[in-house]
Amino acid sequence: MTPPGRLSTAPPPVRRASVGASGPRPPLVEGRGELSAAVTRALRSGGPPVPASGPESVRRADPYGEDLQLALYLLYELHYRGFDGVDDEREWDPDLLRLRRAMEARFLDALRADLSEGPRSVEEAFAPLLVEPADLSGSLSHHLQSRGELWQLREYAALRSLYHLKEADPHAWVIPRLTGRAKAAMVAIEYDEFGAGRADRIHAQLFADLMADLGLDPTYGRYLDRAPACLLATVNLMSLLGLHRALRGALVGHFACVEVTSSPGSRRLARAMRRCAAGPAAEHFYAEHVEADAVHEQVVRHEVIGGLLAAEPDLEADVAFGCAATVLLEDRLASYIREHWNHGRSALRSPLPPQE
User: Fold this and answer.
1) Which of 35, 132, 137, 144 is the most interior residue, by most CB within 10 Å?
2) pTM, whole model, 2 decimals?
């Protein structure tokens, strides 16, 4: 069986699109159930969201399922760039916010239930992440480094584009909620993420360049309709934690988890890009993260978390929860992707064409 979208050689680079350029906002996508369909209708019409089953629709929705996760993603995106044809004022529409709040509660309740036996301290949450596991058989980056194929690298990039084309944006929301050491350290890390004053070095732009090397369309939001619920959940977690001041500790825990685990994974992915001749920009994105995130790991652990807990020690359990929730959702995503790839199937809801 030929895997979907498989290429025998690296596709030629396509025209690079600056992720910071002004231009049309992403189009709305079709719903995947009554909640997401209600949100899409409401955004198109300017009216309130009215799920077919009323309030019951949220209570009986799968908290990790396609319908609820897409509905949440659409509502969160109003706080980023919005959608083509949707009034910017809908960002704070009370009817949309009421529905979002109900879905957020469903999502958070599921995470807390699944992590009821999870870590409660920073040491307990992060200790396993600071040691490279002996068994990497379940690691996506290990698979891609050792035997991944170009079609799999392209799928992985298309999926991750939903975050990386707005990399660091959801974490920036925590800055005004921090003080002292934690704030100063967080700003220093974000300064690097946003290119240290150079637009061409913004990490979101570097990822757009990676996508171009892989023959993917780097337009913001291009692959939303192809992304499964388990990928949407990883991005929604960041938006959920970022938009709620009460969850600032959990957002710091999420951010720290990402930085702690990034460097070794990025090293493997850089090797995968080089082995598959994906292109210099594709390799460079991950090579950049190997060095940068190794430094960021130390800063976020000692200064961001350390500064936050020195000022607000009661947030330690929240920091641990943010880390554990990140690991939980990333593990779910990895299992989903590996299951599909092991059977020669696309991990996207619809396969990529050979080249875009």
Assistant:
1) 35
2) 0.92
